[in-house]
Amino acid sequence: MPDVDVSAEVEGLPTLYQHWLQSILPGGMPRERVATCLDCAMCARTPEEQQTMIGAHNPDTKCCTYFPNVPNYLVGRAIDVDTPGARVMLGYVESGTSSEANVTLHGVAPTGKRSGLYDLVGSTGGFGRDPDLLCPYAIEVGTREGPLCGIWEHRNSVCSTYFCKHVNGGSGRHLWMAIRNLFRHIESSLSWWAIAQLVPEPGPLLLRPPTQQEERIDSALSPEAWTYWSGTRADFYRACSEKVEALSWEEVVSVVGFKAALYVEEVCANYDHVYGETFPDPLRPTAFTTIRAGHDRTTIQGRGGGGSEHVEVPTTLLRLLPYFDGRPTQDVLSDIKSQEGVGLDVALVRKLYDFGILERADV
Ligand code: SF4
Ligand code: SF4
C-alpha cells in the first residue's frame, strides 16, 4: 500500500469511524479539499455563478436534503450533543413516535413516508434543492456557512462519506463508495449485535414484516419490541454506544463477519488505485461528454462521472486525446511532443484517467 503523508490533511470522520478506518489505512483519508462545505462548492452565490453553475444547490439546503438512518450506537452519542439538531433527534427518541422518524431498537430512521418523499422529490431534481427535504438534524440554516450538521461527530456512513466533488475525480469517488459500503455493512450488523447484547432473549415482538419502503432502510423492528427494555429509550441507545465503543477493530471484524473482509479488500484496492504511483497503461479516450465548450477552456465529464464530477481542461487538449490509441503512454507522449510541440505532463494524464476522460485500453 502506498505510504501517503496526509497527516495535516486528513478528512475528519466521526471519531469511531476514524478510529476504525485508521486500522485499515493508517494514514487516514486525504481531505477532499474541493468539497468546500463551509463555503459550499455547489452553491451559486453570485449572479454569474447562478448563470453558469451546473446542478447548483440551494444555499439553504446544500446536500443535506437527506434523512439519515442512524444506527443505535451512534444515536446513543448524538442525543447528548448540545445542538438544536441533536435535540431534534432526542425529541424523536423521547416521544417514540413521529410522522418523520421510526424510533426502534435498531436506531432512528426515516419513516416510509419520509423516505418515499425523498425518493419522489430526489429523483425529480430535488436533491440539494428542495427545502422540504432538509435533514431535521441540520443547524445554522440561513447563515452564510449553513446549514451545518448538528450531529457531526456521530453522523452515519452515508453522511460521512458523501462528497459532491473529489480531488481524484471518479477514482476518488469509487474509493469513498468502497468505504461507505464497508461502514454501511458494519452499521447494519453492529446495531443488531448491540441489540443482541442488551436483549439476549428476544421474542416474537422483535420483528414485524417491513413495508416495501422500509425494507431497504433496515428499520423493520416493531415499536412493541421496546417492551424488552425496561429503561428509557435514550438509555438503551447509550448502552449500545458503550457496547460498540468497547470493541477493538479486530472484534468489530469478527462480529461483522466474512463480508467485512471483502469490503476491507475493496477499500485497500481502491486506495492503492488512487494513491499508488502507477496507473493503467496503455490508455484510450472514453466517450466523455462535453458540458460546456469554450474557446480557451472546455468543461467535460468523463464516462461514469457523477453529477458534479466535471473537469475543465484547455480546449486545445481535446484534439490531443486521439493520440492515446492503445500504444504505450510514453510513446504517445513522445509523439505529441514531436508532432504538436506540446509536453504533456504525466500528472495531467493521470488526472484525465481519474476523471474518466481516458480509460485503460487493454480490456
Ligand atoms: S459535500 Fe455538500 S456541503 Fe460540502 S461542498 Fe459538496 S454540496 Fe456543499
Ligand atoms: S446528519 Fe448531518 S450531514 Fe447528514 S444530512 Fe443531516 S445535517 Fe447533513
Describe the protein's architecture and organization.
- This protein has 363 residues and is mainly alpha-helical.
- It folds into two domains: 7-275, no CATH class; 283-360.
- It has 14 helices and ten strands.
- It has a three-stranded antiparallel sheet.
- A hairpin with a 2-residue loop joins strand 2 and strand 3.
- The chain is globular, with a radius of gyration of 23 Å.
In short:
The chain has 363 residues and is mostly helical. It has 14 helices and ten strands. The chain folds into two domains: 7-275, no CATH class; 283-360.
Alpha-carbon distance between the termini?
24 Å
Mean pLDDT: 88
The biggest beta sheet is recorded as: 3 strands, antiparallel
**Structural class by SSE content:** mainly alpha
- Domains (count): 2
Q: What is the alpha-carbon Rg in Å?
A: 23 Å
